[in-house]
Amino acid sequence: MNTAVKGSGNKERLEARISPDMKKLIQKAAELEGRTVSDFLISSSVAAARQVINAHLNIDLSIRDQVLFAENLLNPPEPVKNLRVAAAKYKGRADGE
After folding, report:
1. How far is CA 13 from CA 8, 32, 53, 94, in A?
2. Which residue segments constitute the domains of the chain, with CATH numbers given?
3. 10-31 average pLDDT score
4. pTM, to two decimals
């Protein structure tokens, strides 16, 4: 399962110092997935980075949505004609039962 990350052109280099135990763990995981250590590290790092970025984007959207929701509760817009008609029909049925 050798999946390369799109856009990887070997233009930049990253280095990290890790313990021998960490290196063995990473080598074992790469071996189990049939990847080189470099490919495993790149794919895993990119996936983790995307997950972190998406989590933060979702939080930002959620906060914006909460603010918009609260503003509309506190200052609701005027109902459109179709909504007023539907409410009147509902009220007529509810009063008749």
Report:
1. 11, 25, 21, 70
2. 20-96 (1.20.5)
3. 94
4. 0.56
